[in-house]
Design brief:
single chain; Rossmann fold; eight-stranded mixed beta sheet
């Protein structure tokens, strides 16, 4: 079976590589020639554990190919996946012009039946637009070629995307065609043989499922952060509260860890897009509007704690910042809390010395040299007035506190991920602040 994946970003590259891993013949297409040339050399554009070795292995086996030409693949494939970007417009809605450009090129050049599948996260009604664009192009050509459209949203966690694709909780496919359903069933047979279910549904429901899933997870995060802030005020320990509610099977233990807000390529964008979809249909998603507002303010919590500690005067202070990516095991800094904190501290007249295991290059690309980049986590501490932990990378969880105390000008830690224990930190001689716990007691 042969398929084409259009777009070699995070979703497209993981999707294409994992399909190749189970024996599908895959061509990944992108208009960026430099990116394609690099991929053909085994150089991948993103950091994702396990992906680079898998790309190289499947290229060597002849199952994974990279090209700048979508047209050259259309005569051979049964399925074309659109995995191009859907960046937010100024009003928060998803920009679909890349998705529709792919549909337009397919309509202009297809010569036989195929399925056009949207893999990107797209608003409800996108499949209908894709179908209309393809049909318009066929009509212009005077061609009567049957085709189907389908929605197959991705549910990949950055940092564990390969495992998520190969061992999915569920595979959601929206389609109106029995023929398309059979082909998609055959495509996903290597996964269903291992017990991973494919859930077929109508197109709008599949599109909505992706947004609803991400928005529910974002809601859990913001809810827990709101509770954490209240815990500090009333003297409760949010870690105990988390354990207490997480043991309830109706709630579960995942996504209820308090912190400094969610970021990344999915949650912020998808929450905004779903809010916009509701507004376009004259409906107010009150819960999600609150979720977004809580997340926005939560990214400022460490800044406010530091400002209070230094008596509202951060001018001239040096801040050591551990972690730049929005979460561990990725170099993705989109909507990262670290970016918000950097801006606030710089605006307040402070200096930033930062370290991240993999996101330094991405940080330099995004913000340049407005901060100082350190060669390791300890160099960032030298003569710093405090340390902020923004990303819970494994190497940050068990540092040498004696060395830290010796390097810092003031032994102060602001822990945005509740990695450390307040009792141990006090014994070690640190002023310690975290999320959802009054550490002054």
């Amino acid at each position: 079976m042969k398929i084409t994946i259009v777009g070699t970003g995070y979703v497209g590259l993981v999707t294409g590589t994992c399909f190749a891993e189970v024996g599908i013949n895959v061509t990944c297409v992108d208009i960026d020639k430099i990116k394609i040339d690099n991929l053909n050399k085994g150089i991948i554009p993103i950091y994702e554990p396990g992906l680079e070795d898998m790309v190289k292995r499947n290229v060597e086996k002849g199952r994974l190919h990279f090209s700048t030409s979508l047209v050259s693949t259309l005569d051979e494939v049964e399925v074309v996946f659109s995995a191009v970007g859907t960046p937010p417009d100024e009003d928060g809605s998803a920009d679909l012009h890349y998705v529709l450009d792919v549909a337009r090129e397919v309509g202009k050049n297809m010569s036989k039946y195929l399925i056009m599948v949207t893999k990107s996260t797209v608003p409800v009604g996108t499949a209908k637009k894709v179908k209309k664009v393809i049909q318009e192009e066929l009509d212009k050509r005077g061609e009567n070629i049957n085709f189907d459209v389908a929605s197959n949203p991705e549910f990949l966690k950055e940092g564990d995307a390969v495992n998520d694709f190969l061992k999915p909780d569920r595979i959601v496919v929206g389609t109106e065609s029995r023929k398309a359903e059979k082909i998609m069933s055959r495509l996903y047979k290597p996964f269903t043989m291992n017990g991973h279910p494919v859930i077929f549904m109508d197109l709008p429901s599949a599109e909505m499922t992706k947004y609803a899933a991400n928005s529910m997870l974002a809601t859990k995060i913001s809810f827990m952060n709101d509770i954490a802030n209240l815990c500090e005020l009333v003297g409760a320990d949010v870690n105990n509260v988390r354990k207490g509610i997480g043991s309830d099977s109706r709630i579960g233990k995942k996504f209820i860890y308090p912190g400094i807000g969610y970021g990344g390529s999915c949650f912020p964008k998808d929450v905004k897009a779903l809010i916009m979809t509701a507004e376009e249909n004259n409906y107010n998603l009150r819960v999600l509007n609150a979720v977004e507002e809580v997340n926005k303010t939560q990214k400022l919590v460490l800044f406010e704690k530091a400002k209070k500690y230094f008596n509202n005067n951060l001018k001239g202070k040096t801040i050591a910042l551990w972690g730049l990516s929005f979460k561990p095991q990725t170099d993705d800094m989109r909507e990262s809390p670290a970016l918000v904190l950097i801006k606030e501290f710089l605006d307040a007249g402070a200096k930033i010395k930062a370290y991240d295991p993999v996101a330094m290059t991405e940080a330099k690309r995004r913000i340049g040299d407005v901060i100082e980049y350190s060669k390791d986590q300890y160099e960032a501490l030298i003569d710093a007035d405090c340390m902020l932990l923004c990303t819970e990378w494994p190497e940050f969880k068990f540092p040498n506190f004696n060395v830290m105390k010796r390097l810092l000008s003031h032994p102060v830690i602001f822990d945005g991920r509740n990695v450390y224990d307040k009792t141990e930190m006090k014994k070690a001689g640190f002023d310690y602040f975290c999320i959802g716990i009054d550490t002054t007691k």
